[in-house]
Predict the 3D structure of the following.
Amino acid sequence: MRLHRLDVTAFGPFGDSQTVDFAALSTAGLFLLHGPTGAGKTSVLDAVCYALYGSVPGARQSGQGTGLRSDHAAPGVRTEVRLELTVAGRRLEITRQPPWERPKKRGTGTTLDKAQSWLRAYDAPAGVWKDLSRSHQEIGEEITQLLGMSREQFCQVVLLPQGDFARFLRADAEARGRLLGRLFDTQRFADVEKRLAERRRATEARVRDGDAALLADAHRMQQAAGDAMELPELTPGEPGLAEAVLGAAAVARSTARERLTVAHCTLTAAEAAQGRAQRELAGTRELHRLQSRFTEARQRAERLQERAGAHHETQQRMERSRKAETVAPALGLREDAETAHRRAAAAEAHARGMLPDTYADAGAAGLAAAARRAAEELGGLESARGAEQRLAVLVEERGGLDRQERADEDVLREADAWLADWDTLRAALQSRVETAQEAATRVEQLAVQRDPAQRRLAAARTRDELAADLEQVQRRALASEQGALDARAHWLDLKEQRLNGIAAELAAHLTDGEPCAVCGATEHPAPARKVAGHVDREAEEAALAAHQRADERRAEDERRLGLVREALAAATAEAGDTPTARLAAEADALEQDHARARRDASALHAAHEELRQAEREREQRLDARQQAAVRAASRLTRRETLEYEQTTLEEELTQARGTAGSVAARAAQLERQEALLTGAADAVRAAEDAAQHLKDADARLADAAYRAGFDTPQASADALLDAAAHRELQHRLDAWQAEEAAVRAVLAEADTATAAQRPPADLAAAERTAAEAERRLREAASARDLAGRRCTELDRLSTRATAGARTLAPLREEYDRVARLAALTAGTSADNERKMRLESYVLAARLEQVAAAATVRLQRMSAGRYTLVHSDDRSGRGRSGLGLHVVDAWTGRERDTATLSGGETFFASLALALGLADVVTDEAGGVRLDTLFIDEGFGSLDDQTLDEVLDVLDSLRERDRSVGIVSHVADLRRRIHAQLQVVKGRSGSSLRQRGL
């Protein structure tokens, strides 16, 4: 990586634009960056770091980057950093602008602009810059991939902070491990340690769970076996648990099988006894049934003998009914004839009552002759009836002509009146159409103006609301930021207190005879004690969680503040600076004008339709007036014809009506007279026929009763039964015969008669004997089933326990293997002689490489006196650490780097920083770092040592490197000609390049 050019504007102490030509400085190989304290030397390096990674080192990065802006910058000048460099053979230009609060373009106050980033690459063949990306994330990933190191690594390798490496020389193994872990990214080895520890805990938990499941199965087997099994007194995780459980299960299975055999024998004996009892019970029940059957048959025979007289009477009554059935047809015919005779006589009397008294004694022939005479007179009235109907039609037609004449007169009068006002009506309607058309045009013009006015009004209201909310959101963001700082400070205080008392916390878990988790010693003569106010792990984690929640609230409040500012800027851009009340008044006036014009325009269609309707009505009225005139001419001729025909018909009808009011009335009189006479003649003839039929039926009935053996017809009628009574008698006779046959059959059975001769059966005693045998059988079967289920359950649980033990065996082996590896990587295993953790082991190897690379330069700086070596001797608490010693060639002794003097510490730390830069560069993929910066520390060197150090730095030019020394030592300005001077002033700092 080689830097070419740096441009900064309104950044840090630089109020305006400043440029650093690193290409010119690099030609000298070694250049000096100097200036008074607070002028901004470190800000130049911060600008390089910000251009590459979008942030500056350490605490100088505050918030989202708004603190990077220079307080000396003009309000309208935006902060910007542009860096041109070559990395991995590519020439790139990176431009970054942090977020800033700029003055509003309209109105007062400020608005927040987002951060911007650009990445361009130089196309040498075309000679132009090409844009690659404007995404913060893409640019960050691209630069990190090209450099092969994070921001922290870059700040340690390229911007060499001498103070940090001096502390590194004097630090303990833990502090060195933290620094080296950040530089060399050994977190994966720490993750391996953590993963192995987690696997050890997980497999241990699984082994315990397996033992617990096995022991649970053992308890179930004990419950199933009852008193035939004793469990071993072991807990989950103890060795030998599986073997003890399986052995106890085998004993329980053997005992259960013996008990099952005994239960089988008992069940066989109970089944035989129960069979005998059931057979005896069946014989007793059969004897009891036969004896009861015989007794019941004797009782039924006695009841039949008692009802014999009634049965004989029923038989005689049934016989008389059968004889009366032969007379039944004659009885029916006689009743029908009598009914018909009564009905005919009543009809005759009613018909004669409807006739005049002159026909009271007339026979059927006289009544029929009178009916024929009325029919002949009725036929002569048909022509008169037609004339009467025609006369009614003529009268109705003349009335229609009169009504039509009156209607035509009304039509003519209305048409004349309406047509007289036609010109005035048409002019008024045309005026309404033109007015509505003008209103429609006005609606379109106002609609174009209304929507922009509504948008500006909505934006103005949003602007006012956001302006009111901005101050509250800003106060909340400041409060959450202060709360996050307080929570972080509280957490760091608790963490420091816990680290100070960590020895007491670890000592609380020490047990005599058990190795210490830190040093491995089994004796603990003086364990540390907790003091009052000791901070434990839970308190620290609670403080950390509170800090994280506070930081999340801070980030959320800052994000909300940014959203409010963006929304306010958008609303202000839309609404401008016009007051909301004025915009509301303008919008309301437009709305009223638009509504008024729309109401006027809505009448356009109605006006057009009303005009067209009026024109159609004018045509209709003209046509109606013409049709009325034509109808008036035709009515005159038709009225004369109708008057002549009406006179002729009236003369004809006067003669035909006679004394009746009309021809129809006369015809109705004749029709009724004819119908009454005809009906009376028919009724007389029917009455005569019915009387003759009744006489014949009486003669036939008397003859049928005599032949059937009855003295009178009434006696045969009394003996006749209806269907229900006949069925009842027949059912009683059939029941008697069936009962008699059944009783005879039972009394004739041989086995029933034999059973009746034996003593009475004792059914209750036999049932008690059978019930007792059944109970004993159920008890024996239950005992056998219980023993069988116990054997089955023990076999099932034993099989599951055996399978569980077989599954648990490889898990125990895995646990032993993982536990050995976890203890080895954690440094607590006896096989790990130096008690060194895996991450410390890897860092020790890296430290050896760093010490070897640093020694090459340290020997030149110290005239061959000092050599840096790594030491893996145990540090405190019995563990090997990341020791770093210096070998003094003058004394031949090896001593700790903390014993070096101030100047020796400086060039030793410088050599260590350069060596570390080489090793980290190789670790990062071999990216060549052609530009380095060394920050302070040269004031502690004497002249000779300073010359040797500068010679070493100057030798870096041989590898085409340029080294920038950041210092305010005056002697360096004389020794190094290429200089970048930072000049401090009241309006901000500025940069000057000299000696080029």
